[in-house]
Design brief:
Shape: globular
CATH architecture of the largest domain: 4-Layer Sandwich
Helix content: 25-40%
Number of domains: 4
CATH class of the largest domain: Alpha Beta
Strand order of the largest sheet: 6-7-5-4-16-15
CATH topology of the largest domain: Deoxyribonuclease I, Chain A
Number of strands: 25
Radius of gyration: 29 Å
Strand content: 15-25%
Structural class: alpha+beta
Length: 848
Amino acid sequence: MAITADDVSLEDIIPISLDFAVVEISSPEELAVVGADTRVRVSYQEEELELRLPFGSHSRLFLSEVNRAWSDVCKTTTHAPRFEWISKYHKNTGGRGVVKQAPSPLSSTLTQVNEHKKTEKPSDQKGSLERDKGSSNSGTPKSRAYSNQESPGLSSREDRDDLVRSSSHTTSNKATILAMPQFGLRDNLIKCELMKNEDIYTYLQNFSFFLGTYNVNGQTPKESLFPWLNCTSDPPDIYCVGFQELDLSKEAFFFNDTPKELEWTKAVSEALHPDAKYAFVKLVRLVGIMLIFYVKNEHAAFISDVEAETVGTGIMGRMGNKGAVSIRFRFHNSDICVVNSHLAAHIEEYERRNQDYKDICSRLQFRQLDPNQPPLTIMKHDVILWIGDLNYRITELDVSDVKELISNKDFETLHNYDQLKRQIDEEAVFVGFVEGDIDFQPTYKYDTGSDLWDTSEKCRVPAWCDRILYRGKNIVQKHYQSHMALKTSDHKPVSSLLQIGIKRVNPDDYKRTFEEIVRNIDKMENECIPSVTLSKREFHFTDLKYMQHQAETLSLFNDGQVPCQFEFIQKPNESTYCKAWLTANPSKGFIANGGTVEIDFEVFVNRSTAPELNSGQEQIEDILVLHLERGKDYFISISGNYLPSCYGSSIHSLCQLKEPIQDMPQETLREMAEKSGDENAENTEKPLDIPKELWMMVDHLFRSALKQEDIFQQPGLRSEFAVIRDCLDTGIPDSLPGSNHSVAEALLLFLDALPQPVIPFYFYQQCLESCSNASQCEKIISMLPQCHKNVFNYLAAFLRELLKNSATNRLDVNILATIFASLLLKSPTKQDFAEKRKTQEFFQHFLA
């Protein structure tokens, strides 16, 4: 399961005062390149804390905020701050300024990040840091933190410094620098004009990119990767190497921790082309999906804006056993994004794979250097390189026919039955991507340690699961092949060598272009007030449903004589510019004169916004204020109607409903919501023991899915969830549609959306305190409100039935406790890792 913010606990509190300092930790033998993480020591009085901050924008923002806070303290403080707010932690910990709590690493609170800048020589850095620390009591302290990390490609700290320093100050980076927050509208315009005129000051130069993908089936490296990674006569300029199923253990699945990361990284570094020296840039991993990025030493100076992100597409979007990891970077003046994905398995699940692809494209986003700019999606790059176990299979042929075509090397005919080819031809996925001709035999499935096709009972049909695709201009594929020599896994690795035309900057042409743009802007500055024309000012959303996305588009046309900068701003006494169910994308931006920008108004009702909409306490109504810098404000009306759903309704309310929720008058739903917290409220008739919607889902699974392989571990289809939701909310049809996996995920989403969990929030602390005592746990359940108690016992009984069939459904107590404890027993506040363990221990008593 992917680590989320809920897994992070508070370990230390260090006040930022005159006794505070932050310094780099490094030694002469440590080597760093672009992409290195930052190691710093934070100190307060006699307390010290060592942090390893992942490379990127999140860490950069964190350190800049620390710097800003320290500066503010030193400028304004005339007496020592008292930090009285810390006292609430002293009661439990006995701390005295630095508070120790849960034993989880503070560095885990920071996610993948970007940007690395260093302009001082090592000797200067050391002196600067010592001076800063020494002056911390003088009223003018400054803190600095720098990145460092080992790399096999560099031989000295001086070499490291030269590489990293020059990477942030190439001419190609000037446009990026202009986007920083301290520059305003004028320099955003300069950046825009530079991008429009890029062809004037750039030229193309070819570089070779080696792409490799390997599903290692949870194995450790048992043989050299040399035949795979060293299959080119000339050393590639860049390596992007991806793995899937790095570790199949439950520890890796639930806690995202594995020793195999280091083992396979070492195997890769030892197998790179021997005729060149390579610098390690970045590694990113999500459970078993890993991507490693190396570049030739001589090119490292031209790598910048490195970002890494992950997205899980497992059940409820939280499991990281399937999903993608990605690294984006700028090489000279070209923006490149590399994606390594592992999509849904099983031959019949091609629609689920299509959905995974679309989820990855929409959810995987990278922060920009300027935090005020919207994040970059995968498709907003010059070059996109996509590798991985995409899991598309060969259909409509039986095993013997497939093997005969393979033995005859008739790959062209066989490829016509390939699911990915068919989905691309139908433009269902990978629109605009190119895959080279496949003239190698399928890479899956082999008996481990051999070249024999699967001889197990399942006798899998051979398939090209492992693929490499690309999108962009000026790309030529030099080879695309599998590597039969490697036998560690039941997959064979695949590689592709691409020659890519990268945009390089001519400094003289750049200077002339830059100066001409500035002169033109000087002429028109202050001449006119910005003005735009809106395509419409009223937007209505009809029949909105739970977790169903709807969007409308607003076109802004700049009809003025000068460029303008727009932003949706907060209304008085409101903390955000719009309601929680609404977003404007982009919410701010820049429009050149005569230009047009399209803004998508997106409405999405989730578990946090559904309860008040279900009861009628909240309506789909909002007014947005669109502000032009140096111009006027425009008001935009948003309205619509929401169809009530059992998702986001309370257990108490649903037990009162004997008819589908959408057949009930809004006033009735409002009254039920008001009474949902009052167990003593009078009822005109006997309520249902459990919500009928819950019964329908559990009954369906009990009758059809007790022996379903990977139930509650494999996601369903979103399209099927929508039909299941409509069936529960309208009563049509009488029985639930969709696959077992879709019904199982619908059940989890139902529990996740409850405003008050099955075990109400006010019992949470008692449950934690009693988690090791089975009889006390049972006593707490006996005290629950009757409808909540009924639901808990009903679900526990169903899960025990599932466990009786664990040999076929592959479930065990730990898996079910991990999944369901987080839904049935929620914390009213943020839950730390120790509490999560206790909730699982509590629930395990009821699964025995």
